[in-house]
Amino acid sequence: WVLMVTAQTPTNIAVIKYWGKRDENLILAINDSISVTLDPAHLCTTTTVAVSPAFNQDRMWLNGKEISLSGGRYQNCLREIRARANDVEDEKKGIKITKKDWENLHVHVASYNNFPTAAGLASSAAGFACLVYSLAKLMNVQEDNGRLSAIARQGSGSACRSLYGGFVKWVMGKEENGSDSIAVPLVDEKHWDELVIIIAVVCSRQKETSSTSVMRETVETSALIEHRAKEVVPKRIIQMEEAIQKCDFATFTHLTCADSNQFHAACLDTSPPIFYMNDTSHRIISCVEKWNRSEGTPQVAYTFDAGPNAVLIARNRTSAALLLQRLLFHFPPNSETDLNSYVIGDKSL
Ligand code: DP6
To answer: CA 146 → CA 59, 85, 133, 180, distances in Å?
Structure first.
């Protein structure tokens, strides 16, 4: 027999960034962060997990290609979920698995992204969140999403925020074992539903260095990152939560853009310096800044993760349509600017 579960998890984009760990194995951050979860129709991972007595080892396929599960991150997630497994019974199929059986049963995992993994768009967030969620369903784990987020966090920090829709805060926590380092939903996807997210794919090449190792170098060598984590982010988190509650787009834009810029400044302050944005990214920033200033009230917020692609958050559909017009005018697709496609994703509408 084979027992299967399929789940779908969207990716999330941080508006107050996580950058820097206080514990690399447990993945504990040096500051709180806030993100918005995207609509699963646009950027998400679908994962099927299966268990059968015929499986003699844990195996995983990502977009059809087998990947190694030997990395500590996968092992940590599998171990944590297995430790919480419960009895499972499927009467129709005549399957009965006891809590104890799970120790000797192996799983097969097949995971697909509905966006190109090579596009350099956050895929580990949706991937680990979906892995943990689907395994928890398969093994009848009775933990709430907060507790599951602490397990997904051990796969990839940003993954813990993908367990909820809407705006989500990852509370860094204080405990050494990470038990209080969990995701907390701020507002659900129905709140502030006029926002529209457009991702301008500036470069579809895969990242050269993993964000994990750069993060470590930033913590070890940048003076700015400590100031950011201790002095800047705590204030921004409070202001951002208030802006989200009030749907205050001007404050939201100011904080989102400033935080993205400071994160990239910290990367530049790292030795050796890291340049995630390229000329096209910089031109997009100028274009948005000029437009926002000429309108008097901001129309679009921008934020860039560990890569050159722009995530643009428009205040409403009208601004989003105007933004697309502007982008197409300044960066015609397939021109030498290599801004080669747009992914349009409403905020988990
Ligand atoms: C720039 O979550 O990918 O996207 O915890 O090492 O897996 P690991 O890092 P990851 O880093 C994400 C960094 C970011 C900002 C953010 O999502 O908050």
So the answer is: 27, 17, 11, 9
Residues 20-35 pLDDT 10s: 999 999 999 999 999 9
Q: Specify the pLDDT at position 42.
A: 78
Q: What whole-number distance in Å separates Cα of residue 41 and Cα of residue 198?
A: 14
156 lines ligand 1 (CB under 6 A): yes
Take atom 12 of ligand 1 and give the residue whose Cα is closest.
158
CA 306–ligand 1 middle distance (angstroms): 8
If one residue of 15, 16, 18, 153 were mutated to test the ligand 1 pocket, choosing by the most ligand atoms within 8 A of its CB, it would be: 18
Tell me what pLDDT residue 116 has. 62
pLDDT at 278 > cutoff 60: yes
What is the pLDDT confidence band of residue 180, given thresholds at 50, 70 and 90?
Answer: very high
ipTM of this predicted structure:
0.99
For residue 73, report the distance from its CA to the centre of ligand 1, in Å.
14
Closest atom of ligand 1 relative to the 305 alpha carbon: 1
345 pLDDT tier (thresholds 50, 70, 90): very low
Compute the distance between CA of residue 188 and CA of residue 166 in angstroms, rounded to an integer: 4
Q: What is the dihedral of CA 310, 311, 314, 318, to 10 degrees?
A: 70
Read off the pLDDT of residues 318-328 as tens digits, 9 standing for 90 and up.
999 999 899 88
| CA 89 to ligand 1 center in whole angstroms | 37
DSSP one-letter string for 24-58: TTTTEESS-EEEEEPPTTTSEEEEEEEEETT--S-
Q: For residue 294, is pLDDT > 50?
A: yes
Does 212 sit in the ligand 1 pocket, CB within 6 Å?
A: yes
Q: What atom in ligand 1 is closest to the CA of residue 27?
A: 5
CA–CA separation, 285 vs 250, rounded Å?
16
> Rounded to the nearest whole angstrom, what is the distance from the C-alpha of residue 301 to the centroid of ligand 1?
20
CB 97 within 8 Å of CB 105: yes
The whole-number average pLDDT for the span 56-75 is 94
Say how far residue 281 (Cα) sits from the centre of its chain: 20
Q: How far is the CA of 210 from the centre of ligand 1 (A)?
A: 10
> For the residues 309-330, what does the mean pLDDT come to?
92
